[in-house]
Specification:
The chain is built from 14 helices and 15 strands. It is an alpha/beta fold. It folds into three domains: 205 residues, NAD(P)-binding Rossmann-like Domain (Rossmann fold, 3-Layer(aba) Sandwich), CATH 3.40.50.720; 92 residues, Orthogonal Bundle (N-(1-d-carboxylethyl)-l-norvaline Dehydrogenase, domain 2); 127 residues, NAD(P)-binding Rossmann-like Domain (Rossmann fold, 3-Layer(aba) Sandwich). It has an eight-stranded mixed sheet, with helices on both faces.
Length: 433
């Protein structure tokens, strides 16, 4: 057993998590709870300030869990990359967005790797957790580390481990979600495995970093494609005069060979709309067109426009035009019970309705102010539902009183089947996807 592995087993290692957002903060907490000394390194001084006060800024992490770890001196945060010089293990959880032309934006991974290289020393584990295209760890991270004097597999151990955190999920958390892990060499895998198996219930080793990178893209492509399929089923059902929700619910009674996915206003969040495009971009360079991904992206990206068409047609039935109508969008977070608005389809729905001349407001119990993609809006805290010409439910947070919304709104466009079971209002007041 090497000294480094022994350090991990004794939990005497210092772990630095680079990027303490939705993915990084839960990891900081898990390593802290397992008894490691952990520092979160982030460029955002506000996150660093809050963490050092023991205050959580991520819904899934209660302050009651973070606070004691900070006050015990196990966990802290910094904006100074100098801390990397003290790290026995560095875990990189920085963003991997797309640029304007929908291509991978690798700036954050490159910046974080450059910082590690400036402070690297022998006997370190470096794990990339940011979702990215197959080949990134080997082609982007490894050459930089080797250029800085390290020999991967000998005095530095490099791995990739996809993050599977599902914000808002009350059952599957960082600790109990199996963790896939691939090393650049067998020694890299062995060292990274020794690190993670001390804090997580189950580590699933794979043969390479490329395989580990691909696992994540398979998982998220699976979701994007199935959501694309079911969104198209919803479009087909409309043409056929059928209720797509009824059809899906009935199909879901099949105990084998079917897994229900549900239509919606479009994809959102930092993962599902973006990750598959990392894969299709990679394949384009190999002269291969990832047809399922591109088709699903096309269908899913057009769902906000479909919601707006549906709203226009509902208003039309009540002899109103979109132009000049007061429309309330309900729920702007990208999914239920979270406050994350990144890539939320609500942004497109609001922008498209405004383009058509609607006077748009929004209500979201989790998002008091919306600032995204050039859109800045204050939410309506307590809407007078009846004062809007149309209410569009984009995200069905549990905190919303849907029966009240339906009872008091003039018309409701329901993109989530939130109004299921409500039968005591006239049919021309509810329009489902
Ligand atoms: N959010 C999710 O549900 C989720 C789930 C699985 C995987 N992922 C993946 O995990 C990665 C991180 O996502 P996230 O949602 O945690 O992002 P996030 O934006 O919440 O957090 C990323 C943090 O990294 C910091 N940062 C950026 N560059 C930095 C640098 N060079 N040095 C230090 N800090 C830096 C940012 O300030 C930010 O605080 C992405 O690749 C994402 O695709 C996210």
């Amino acid at each position: 057993m090497t000294d480094l592995i022994q350090k991990f087993e004794k939990r005497a290692a210092h772990v630095v998590v680079v990027g303490i957002g939705y993915v990084g903060l839960p990891l900081v907490v898990e390593f802290g709870k397992a008894g490691f000394r952990v520092t979160g390194l982030d460029k955002d001084p506000e996150k660093v300030r809050l963490l050092n006060k023991g205050e959580s800024y991520i819904g899934d992490i209660p302050t009651s869990e973070l606070g004691p770890l900070v006050s015990s001196g196990k966990v802290d945060a910094t904006t100074s990359e100098d801390i990397l010089a003290k790290a026995d293990a560095v875990i990189v959880c920085v963003p991997t967005p797309l640029n304007k032309t929908k291509e991978p934006d690798m700036r954050f991974i490159v910046d974080a790797t450059d910082a590690i290289c400036r402070h690297t020393h022998p006997n370190q584990v470096v794990v990339l957790e940011s979702t990215t295209y197959p080949g990134t760890t080997r082609e982007v991270v490894v050459p930089k580390l080797e250029a800085s004097g390290r020999t991967v597999g000998k005095d530095i151990f490099v791995a990739f481990s996809p993050e599977r955190v599902d914000p808002g999920n009350k059952v599957w958390k960082t600790k109990n979600t199996p963790k896939v892990l691939g090393g650049v060499t067998p020694e890299c895998l062995k060292h990274a495995q020794a690190l993670y198996q001390n804090i997580l219930d189950r580590v699933v080793p794979v043969s390479s970093t490329d395989a580990a990178e691909m696992v994540k893209l398979l998982e998220n492509t699976f979701r994007a494609v199935n959501i694309g399929l079911v969104n198209e089923i919803a479009l087909m059902c409309e043409k056929l005069g059928l209720d797509s929700w009824e059809v899906i619910d009935a199909a879901a009674t099949k105990p084998f060979g079917f897994m229900p996915f549900y239509p919606g206003p479009g994809l959102g969040g930092h993962c599902i709309p973006i990750d598959p495009l990392y894969l299709s971009w990679r394949l384009r360079a190999l002269k291969y067109t990832a047809r399922f991904i591109e088709l699903a992206d096309d269908i899913n990206s057009n769902m906000p426009a479909y919601v707006v068409r549906k709203t226009a047609s509902a208003l039309n039935k009540h002899k109103k035009s979109v132009n000049g109508s007061k429309v309330l969008v309900v729920g702007v977070a990208y999914k239920r019970d979270v406050d994350d608005v990144r890539e939320s389809p609500a942004i497109d729905v609001i922008s498209l309705l405004r383009d058509e001349g609607a006077d748009v407001s929004y209500h979201d119990p989790h998002v008091p102010k919306l600032e995204e993609h050039g859109l800045t809006l204050d939410g309506v805290a307590a809407p007078q539902w009846g004062s809007y010409d149309a209410t569009v439910i984009v995200t069905d947070h549990k905190a919303l009183d849907i029966p009240k919304i339906v009872r008091e709104s003039k018309i409701v466009i329901d993109t989530r089947n939130a109004t299921r079971g409500i039968t005591d209002v006239p049919a021309d007041r509810i329009y489902k996807l």
